[in-house]
Design goal:
The chain has five helices and no strands. The protein has one domain. It is mainly α. The protein is about 65% helix and about 0% strand.
Length: about 140
């Protein structure tokens, strides 16, 4: 994510040296790249956390639930940003709107139970009791 963010900053800093059309195209491209990287990070956090969670009751800690829900919440927020982005990229090898829909699917499977993993749902924990004054994992993603 850091590389994508740095590339976006470079494009923004080079604006004065680009035509308006080139700047808009490049800026939109790298905005989508940042959103895609963030989306994949959030979904991976939820998915792999869920894979650990379903291994047994001893794995189902409040901290793991909170980590999974951080991924789910971030994925949903990013999916909304993807759908709301003003630049509708043409789909080619990568279809970022499909990724947003996949994030929604992971949210449903994890929060309501995934048939592949015995229908085990992850209940949302009380985040304040889990994280307290500490930062949520998504607050330092990409640090």
């Amino acid at each position: 994510m850091n590389v994508a963010r740095a590339a976006l900053r470079d494009i923004q800093q080079a604006r004065a040296h680009l035509s308006e059309a080139d700047y808009r195209q490049l800026n939109a491209y790298f905005e989508r790249t940042v959103l895609t990287a963030r989306q994949h990070h959030a979904v991976a956090t939820a998915y792999f956390g869920y894979r650990i969670y379903v291994q047994g009751p001893e794995q189902r800690t409040d901290e793991l639930k909170a980590l999974i829900w951080t991924g789910l919440d971030d994925a949903r927020q990013i999916a909304d940003a993807v759908r709301d982005h003003p630049d509708r990229a043409a789909s080619g090898e990568w279809d970022w709107l499909r990724d947003a829909a996949e994030a929604d699917t992971y949210h449903t499977r994890t929060s309501e139970g995934w048939d592949r993993y015995g229908g085990i749902a992850v209940p949302r924990p009380d985040a304040d009791s889990v994280w307290g004054a500490r930062r949520r994992p998504s607050e330092h993603a990409g640090d």
